[in-house]
Amino acid sequence: MELAYWIVGGLLALFYLYAGGKKAVQSKERLRPMMGWVDTIPMPLVRAIGALEVAGALGLILPPLTGIAPGLAVAAAAGLVLIQVGGIVTHVSRGEARLIGLNIGLLVAAGVAVWLGTVWL
What we know:
The protein is mainly alpha-helical. The chain has helices at residues 2-25, 28-31, 43-66, 72-93, 101-120. It is globular and about 40 Å long.
């Protein structure tokens, strides 16, 4: 279970560090080609989502790695589940239901990280 957690958690962390970092620092114009929804969401909220994604990525890795409050990894994974629920709701409300495949995949992966974290940590 430990190896499975590190694989799932590591892949999620890499994805969220990249995607969250982009949301946290790039302009709306640079984000628009990949994330059309940024036109309807205020940029401070986009930045907050990016910061939460980066925090979630760090929360998946640092607590179990250092042994300091490893249960926080479960909370981080649960937070990433909630972020994806919000992403799915946003896409569906914009009539973009065909674009939720990645969101569902990330939701499932974060859910698996929650389960693995509760079993292993």
